[in-house]
Amino acid sequence: MFKHILVPTDLSMKSNRALEIAIDMATAANGRITLIHVIEKIEDSDGDEFQSFYDKLASNARLKMEKMTRPHKSSEARIETEIIIGSRVKEIIEFSITHDVDLIILSSHKLTNVDAVEGWATISYKVGILAPCPVMMVK
Question: Within 10 Å of residue 120's Cβ, how many Cβ atoms?
Answer without folding.
Answer: 11
